[in-house]
Specification:
Layout: H1 6-17, E1 22-23, H2 24-31, H3 39-51, E2 55-60, E3 63-68, H4 72-86, H5 90-99, H6 103-116, H7 119-128
Antiparallel strand pairs: 1-3, 2-3
Helix pairs in contact: 2-3
C-alpha cells in the first residue's frame, strides 16, 4: 500500500486546495506559514510525489509546476480499495466500516447506491473485469 509521509500528505493537501498548478516556491511559501522548511526539502518531496505518480509536472518558464494527478476523492477511493484488498474478508471489513459511520453518512451512502442502481454492475466490471 502506498502510504504518504506526513510532509507528503501536507504537500498533497496544499496542491488539492490550490486553484491551479503550483511551483516549488508557491508550495514553500504556503508551507512556511505553518513551519520552518527549506526550499530543497519541498523540491525533494514534490519530486518523490512525481515519481510515485501522485503529481504531474510541467514546465512554466524555467521551473516546473505541479498539480495532483488525481482528485482528493479519487485518491481516497484508491486507498480504500487498497485497504479492502488487504482485508481477509472484504464484506466484513465493509460492514465494520459502515457500522462506524454516522446515521447521516449511512443515509447518504444509501442514496448514492440507489442513484447508481444497476449501472453499479457495469462500473464494477469495467474496473475489475468481472463481478465481485
Amino acid at each position: 500500500m502506498r502510504q504518504l509521509g506526513s510532509l507528503e500528505a501536507e504537500v498533497m493537501r496544499r496542491l488539492w486546495d490550490a486553484r491551479g498548478p503550483m511551483a516549488v516556491r508557491d508550495v514553500l511559501d504556503d508551507l512556511q506559514r505553518d513551519r520552518d522548511i527549506a526550499y530543497t526539502t519541498v523540491m525533494t518531496v514534490l519530486d518523490n510525489l512525481h515519481r510515485k505518480d501522485l503529481v504531474v509536472r510541467s514546465k512554466r518558464g524555467r521551473a516546473y509546476v505541479y498539480s495532483p494527478a488525481q482528485s482528493r476523492e479519487e485518491r481516497t477511493a484508491e486507498l480504500m480499495g487498497e485497504v479492502l484488498t488487504d482485508a481477509g474478508d472484504r464484506g466484513v471489513a465493509l460492514l465494520r466500516f459502515v457500522e462506524q459511520m454516522s446515521p447521516g453518512e449511512v443515509a447518504e451512502l444509501r442514496q448514492l447506491l440507489g442513484e447508481l442502481g444497476e449501472p453499479l454492475d457495469d462500473i464494477h466490471s469495467d474496473h475489475t473485469g468481472g463481478p465481485a
